[in-house]
Specification:
About 20% of the residues lie in helices and about 35% in strands. The chain is of the alpha+beta class and about 140 residues long. The chain has a single domain (about 5-135), classed as Roll (2,3-Dihydroxybiphenyl 1,2-Dioxygenase, domain 1), CATH 3.10.180.10. It is globular and about 45 Å long.
């Protein structure tokens, strides 16, 4: 089964994160973002915690990065929505039983050490959805 606990974050792809980052920090006043390089996804993330849902900026570190390819096609844009689930392993098992196409059949480790897995946009009507579970 799957139990959705809420929206964990919204992932936003940007060619260069400075402008958006400064806007979030200096105009909106969302302080102390956490920046991290995710090697296997070839991105730098910068996460702003609004206290009710996070905003995750994604900047590619390589021309091979999926984020680079996304921006080439669509420009700066919302890239994915991340939903918190209670148990990511049983969620993925449930989705497989429902024949939902997955990008990640097994969870990997994403930003902030969360276990994450992406659902294929073909299964959702074109929206990229990330499931995540906070490591306890
Ligand atoms: Zn994300």
């Amino acid at each position: 089964m799957i139990k959705i606990l809420g929206i964990e974050h919204i992932g936003i792809a940007v060619k260069n994160r400075d402008k958006t980052s400064n806007f979030f920090k200096n105009i909106l006043g969302i302080k102390n973002p956490i920046s991290e390089e995710i090697i296997d996804q070839k991105v730098i993330t910068e996460i702003f915690n609004t206290s009710k849902g996070k905003l995750e900026l994604l900047e590619s570190t390589s021309l091979e990065s999926p984020i680079h390819k996304f921006i080439e096609k669509r420009g700066n844009a919302i890239h994915h929505i991340a939903l918190s689930v209670e148990n990511i392993d049983s969620s993925l098992k449930y989705l497989k039983e429902k024949n939902v196409q997955l990008i990640d059949e097994i969870p990997r480790i994403g930003a902030e050490g969360f276990k994450i897995a992406f659902i294929h946009p073909k299964a959702t009507g074109g929206i990229l959805i990330e499931l995540c579970q906070k490591n306890k």
